[in-house]
Write a structure and sequence with these properties.
The chain is α/β, with parallel strands linked by helices. It folds into two domains: 159 residues, Rossmann fold; 153 residues, 3-Layer(aba) Sandwich (Rossmann fold). The strands form four sheets. A six-stranded parallel sheet has the order 10-7-6-11-12-13, sandwiched between helices. α12 links the parallel β11 and β12. α5 packs across α6, α9 crosses α14 and α11 crosses α12. The chain is globular, with a radius of gyration of 21 Å.
């Protein structure tokens, strides 16, 4: 498993954790960007963990490979250095790219394409696991050619599946829900003030703030929503982080949101913990308003009515598959113009709370079971490569 950024993003951790449980009978090595993070949370008992080589931390290697790439036009040389321990004589038969939205960002898209080419050139088979792709991306010939190199692609929603098929990528595509729908929660202690079934979970990220069109509008919407919940009900508010990377840390945005509510006993901010414990907390909420995809997946799969404050194809695609439409279930952060828009979306959700929960209770058992079935596709491919 490669192109894993580390478990400080608990969505990444949730994908690996669930995948390892799906493939318990297959030997697994996680090549990670952050060995320390992955040994801190829930992954160490589930798979072997190997720190990938970081070329930027080794001056002479960086200079050598930079010159080599420039002179010989060898774009894969950096990847051969980065994954040196799992290429060459140590090559495995099967490599799984686990960063589901890597192709949505320009830098990581180039990394994903180059890594896939390097592994395929070495004679291995590759998998693009639980992915989302913007349809516009599949108008790029380089991306389409790269998709056709994978032995298996498992899009996690139908917008991506349809875009792949319309681009002519068909034979290697199998639709399954995101692996994290199968994540098992782990019970953890809750504050005495946390009232199960009477607490609204809230998640906000620096990422959605960066996508807002009007400066400050996202935090203002969230603040007004918290005031609305406190004034209009006896519900509590739980501020729940889901990504703790230094350059993209939910806690920074949540602490800013929390400012002014520190003395209010009905508002509390949760600390960092594993993806399974975070899912348990989210599962005890009455409703969930979330920005991080895997925080909302934790809520959906726990049958908690959920509003996504999102910006990307993965938010739209998952909601469309679950509810038939993303309207009312996804509030695009790019469209926020007025400070009360999140209140309106929240009220719509809560007016239909019982109906939405009942619908999730009907669909989630089969939906989560389908997520687990993706492991059978990997197992078939693995078995075909043995012997």
């Amino acid at each position: 498993m490669y192109l894993h950024g580390g478990s400080g993003n608990h969505g990444c951790e949730a994908i690996i954790n669930s995948t390892c449980h799906m493939l318990e009978d297959i030997p697994k090595l996680l090549v990670t960007n952050s060995e320390k993070e992955d040994r801190t949370y829930s992954l160490e008992p589930l798979c072997d963990i190997l720190q990938e080589r970081k070329i930027a931390e080794h001056f002479f290697a960086h200079v050598f490979y930079y010159v080599w790439r420039a002179v010989f036009r060898d774009s894969e040389s950096f990847m051969r250095y980065r994954f040196r321990e799992v290429l060459g004589k140590n090559r495995a038969p099967l490599y799984m790219s686990t960063g589901g939205d890597l192709y949505c960002y320009e830098l990581s898209k180039k990394e994903a394409i180059t890594a896939n080419a390097a592994f395929c050139r070495a004679g291995a088979k590759t998998i693009l696991w639980g992915c989302s792709l913007e349809p516009e991306l599949l108008k790029e010939p380089e991306v389409v050619a790269d998709m056709k190199r994978y032995a298996l692609i498992t899009p996690r929603e139908t917008i991506t599946e349809r875009a792949l098929r319309e681009a002519g990528v068909t034979e290697n595509v199998k639709l399954f829900p995101d692996p994290a729908f199968a994540l098992e929660p782990e019970k953890t202690d809750l504050p005495n003030r946390f009232v199960a079934g009477k607490t609204i979970g809230i998640n906000i990220s620096p990422m959605i703030v960066r996508h807002e069109k009007e400066s400050g509008i996202t935090l203002e919407n969230y603040r007004r929503l918290i005031d609305h919940i406190l004034a209009g009900s006896d519900n509590c508010v739980a501020l729940i982080p889901h990504v703790m990377w230094k350059y993209n840390d939910d806690r920074l945005t949540l602490r800013e949101l929390y400012r002014g509510y520190e003395a209010n006993e009905r508002v509390f901010l949760f600390p960092d913990m594993s993806c399974r414990k975070l899912k348990y907390i989210i599962s005890r909420c009455r409703a969930f308003i979330g920005a991080r995809t895997h925080a909302t997946i934790a809520a959906y799969s726990s049958c908690v009515p959920t509003l996504v404050v999102g910006y990307s194809v993965k938010a739209r695609g998952i909601a469309r598959d679950l509810f038939g439409s993303e309207e009312h279930y996804v509030l695009p952060v790019q469209t926020l113009e007025k400070p009360e828009e999140l209140i309106g979306a929240y009220d719509w959700l809560m007016d239909r709370e019982q109906e939405i929960r009942a619908g999730l209770e009907r669909t989630m058992p089969e939906y989560c079971a389908r997520a687990k079935m993706a492991g059978e596709e990997v197992r078939r491919l693995w078995n075909s490569l043995q012997g």
